[in-house]
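The passage that follows is intended for readers who have already worked through the single-chain material. We present the inputs for a multi-component assembly, then the predicted structure in tokenized form, and finally a short commentary. You are encouraged to pause after the input and sketch how you expect the pieces to fit together before reading on.
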Amino acid sequence: MTDLTLLGIAEAGRLMARGEITSTALTEAFLKRIAAVDHKIASYITVTGDMALSAARQADMEMKGGVRRGPLHGIPIALKDIYETAGVKTTGHSHFKKDYVPAIDAETVRRLKDAGAVILGKLGTHEFANGAMTPDQPFPIVLNPWNTKYQPGGSSSGSGAAIAAQLCMGAMGSDTGGSIRNPAGFCATAGIKPTYGLVSRCGVFPLSFSMDTAGPMAWTTEDCALMLDVLAGHDPLDQGSAKTAKVDYGAAAHRPIKGMRIALARSWYEGQNGEGNSVTPEMKKGIDEAVRVLKDLGAIVEDVVFPDLRDYHIAGRIIITTEAHAIHRQDVIESPEKFGYTTRRRFQLGAFISAEQYLSALRFRRQLTLDTRAAMRGYDLIMAANQWGDPEIAEEPQAVFHFLGKPQLPMPFNITGQPAATICCGFSSGGLPLAFQLAGRAFDEASVIAVGSAFERATPWRSHRPKL
Amino acid sequence: MPPSKTPPTLEEFRVRAAQSGLTLTPEDVEHLHKGYVGLLTLMERIPSHWAWAAEPPHVFRADE
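Having made your guess, compare it with the prediction:
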């Protein structure tokens, strides 16, 4: 029998439906691997082994009796530790919440459990999804399974690392300024930042209420789609939640892509005439090759000029900094020492932004959204680099204000609210992942999934795994 | 944006920080000054003429 931890969600679901494997065996395999290797990367904060086995046995009993709850029935999933879980600690990777045990589940967790998913535990994150990982926080720094000298990217660090290391089949992340797509890119997993409003954020620690999204991460885009089938839908308790028609995302993963039109935002990631920043030569080569593959699959890929990447970056930074300060203001006043030294300063900075500056950033966001939509006219998707190059070295202290460096490549789609996925397109000579982003029109996750899945099936990268 | 033309000196920023209601170490203030001045530089990309303009009505449309 194959190593069960190498199975994808879609494949494991098929095998369980045919009675060839059980959820209990699958869950035991993941728990065994977590016990054996997670000490090398510290992706889990809490492992809920007994609860997971009990849920797995329940799923097996139901499936044996002919009850099939859907594509996640019996599938082992883990959660970024900002998702509230009834009876299980939800720490936010912070001293503030290190003993906090919520009474009820986040809406997304409730949906996962209703769909029969098996929750393996809670995963490391940048503190409250914003600060860097620093040694003054209560849990260890998560490391990149491809090379433990490096960070896995953040803020959904544990989610990316655990999926790549075969320590769960899928995980929940959150994305306010790239927090799903950064770790997905640096850990070679797939991840989808859904359209703002598609997935409930009720019961997820907020960072920036007008930018936060909750979304799935998994080894393949198709597996993310199966998670999205369960997660998407209106929640009256989330004021940003949208009422949208039900879409079969799993089916979208098998849609033909011939004739689909993709706008390549090359100016974001290839500096021209000495202006702007450039990805590493290996990343450029990986993306050029991805463009060739997509053309071979029948897609039409053309260079299109979008607004300057720095415009999205600064609008997003002002909005996130201001809203995060509003959310955490009381704590940074009363107990600043309880935050990690980087998180504290990022949350304090919002106190110095004026109402006029915040409003200008909101209006700039609106203009950028309209300009992006106009530039995308005639195209189904936007394609761009996901990251500039290799991740940061784990032992080197991160910049307190990281936004003063290069602009963030994922930020445009946090500004516009569009859905965006990260797709692995190879590895550097140093063995670290290369990745690109695909973004669709608002609520058109299906097109993103169709192209991402077709690319993954046409390339060998999903058969590479890190060795731990 | 108007304030970005003249970024505050560290001394000026210290005065402002003292009135912020935050408990700050001298090291915090230095980091925050650097971060704030950096933000102001980046904010020069934001058009200033919107600061007091009315929000267009489509912003409030729920069906977009």
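Commentary: Residues 309-334 of chain A form the longest helix (26 residues). The domain at 4-268+272-276+280-307+370-463 of chain A is CATH 3.90.1300.10 (Amidase signature (AS) enzymes). How closely did your sketch match?
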